Amino acid sequence: xxxxxxxxxxxxxxxxxxxxxxxxxxxxxxxxxxxxxxxxxxxxxxxxxxxxxxxxxxxxxxxxxxxxxxxxxxxxxxxxxxxxxxxxxxxxxxxxxxxxxxxxxxxxxx
Length: 110
Description:
This protein has helices at residues 7-20, 36-39, 62-66, 71-89, 93-96. It is mainly α. The chain is globular, with a radius of gyration of 17 Å. The mean pLDDT is 76.
């Protein structure tokens, strides 16, 4: 879990609100299985962003739902991600460093 006051979380919130034109409300009930779970232990603060599912999912199977793209939503997501990238790249290394990486046991067998 990344601290909600982290620069990346706050940047994502600002970017999302600008793209959507409304205040952000947390989305609950998601799986939590993301690349963030791999990056966070290495000290990289992360935030989860994504596109909404299609409005009418009643006729979609899981495979179809995962292969549906709503172009206006995709464009908003790209704009949101670009906002976060530019905002992050304009910050000092100290501000974006996060915490130290975990120690690696070089003697441990794979």
